[in-house]
Amino acid sequence: MKGARPALRYAKAVLNLAKESGNDALVNENMQLIVNTIAESDDLETMLKSPIIKAKDKQKVLVALFGDKVDTIVKGLFNLLEENKRMLMLEPIAKQYTIIYDYHKSMQVAKVTTAVALTKELEDKIQAKIVDLTGNSASIENIVNPSILGGFILRVGDVQYDASISNQFNELRREFDNSHYIPKI
Fold it and tell me: Residue 182 has what pLDDT?
């Protein structure tokens, strides 16, 4: 991925500044806001990627859009990216920041696929399963997929736990296919 290394370097520098000032959690929220805003707005993404629009104008738009919503460290990042003509890297930097912040706080993201949206009670049960499997808690990202019929599929890092009904049906089908049972007719 082009620009991943510089984005990681910028993100580490921002995290170090944020840790020194004690605002690392606030800056993480700001970075998530930036990623979500860029993802929701095609116009903003196009503007940031445009080689025609000057970096100073891009910075003015970002300050107008996020000015009172973000920490001074993030505003400083806007200025730095403008000076270095790297406004295009804002989204990758924000994503990398969130990843290294979660790593720094020993937080993992657990992707939970369910047939219906999770309730608070189910989230608590899944959080207990995550602690059982990995030893750490994790933030839960719910993906709704009706094709699994019921149950859930949990993925934390490289660990996957499949407790879906569709998986149980598939295992049952494999068992019948592999058995040498010949029914009497």
Answer: 66
Residue type, 29: E
Q: What is the mean pLDDT of residues 20-49?
A: 89
Contacts of 89 (CB under 8 A, 6+ apart): 3, 6, 7, 10, 81
Q: Which positions ≥6 away from 143 have C-beta within 8 Å?
A: 111, 112, 113, 114
- Read off the tokens for 38: 């860029």
Q: Domains of the chain by range and CATH?
A: 4-104 (1.10.520.20), 108-178 (no CATH)
Give the residue among 143, 134, 137 at the shortest CA–CA distance from 111. 143
Residues in the chain: 185
Amino acid 185: pLDDT: 61
Q: How many Cβ atoms from other residues are within 10 Å of residue 98's Cβ?
A: 21
Q: Quick one: which of 159, 171, 165, 164 has its CA closest to 113?
A: 164
Q: How far is CA 28 from CA 35, 51, 73, 156, 157, in A?
A: 11, 28, 11, 20, 20
Query: What is the pLDDT at residue 52?
Result: 92
pLDDT in tens, 123-148: 888 888 888 877 777 878 888 888 88
